[in-house]
């Protein structure tokens, strides 16, 4: 029997919640160069629809969400939620369900300088992997204006693992 969900073709979108959708869209459009494709909402329910379908508090409201496209990778579904039991602390990468989104760039040093020139907080210096399967990759984390961890990654000459297998991880095309 073949493993996996029948017909699965890959990640269509990543969804995440922000404290202010307008601010998030300005950041994604003006700093990251994304395009807002469309918006949806508002959504709320007087019964248990929100719990049954989204696993959130039944009185949760979604004032608006937007589908955003950036380059030739997956879409982002960005939500603004209001909920009586909403947690407002940013999870760290080490927390359960911690996450970050990495953006492939052609020249990481130019991209880092661009972020700094736009007053975006960059965490530490660029790290270049010199050993192991990721050797050849350079990366650095940065923060959105609301504190979400994001990452820049670049490996112009590939990664070391590529010399040992026919398997290739996804890299956005130029």
The end-to-end span amounts to 36 Å
Report the total helices: 3
Task: Please report the total strand number as a whole number.
Answer: 8
Which strands sit side by side, in order, in the main sheet? 1-4-3-2
Based on secondary structure, the structural category is alpha/beta
Question: Overview of this structure, please?
Answer:
This protein is of the alpha/beta class and 174 residues long. Helices cover 15% and strands 29% of the residues. It has helices spanning 21-30, 49-54, 108-117; strands spanning 13-17, 35-40, 61-69, 75-82, 101-104, 122-128, 138-143, 149-154. The strands form two sheets. A four-stranded mixed beta sheet has the order 1-4-3-2. Strands 5-8-7-6 form a four-stranded mixed beta sheet, covered by helices on one side.
Brief sketch in words of this structure:
Helix content is 15%, strand content 29%. By secondary structure, the chain is of the alpha/beta class. It is globular, with a radius of gyration of 19 Å.
Task: Break the fold down into its secondary structure elements and pairings.
Layout: E1 13-17, H1 21-30, E2 35-40, H2 49-54, E3 61-69, E4 75-82, E5 101-104, H3 108-117, E6 122-128, E7 138-143, E8 149-154
Parallel strand pairs: 1-4, 5-8
Antiparallel strand pairs: 2-3, 3-4, 6-7, 7-8
Tags for this entry?
174 residues, alpha/beta, four-stranded mixed beta sheet, 8 strands, 15% helix, globular
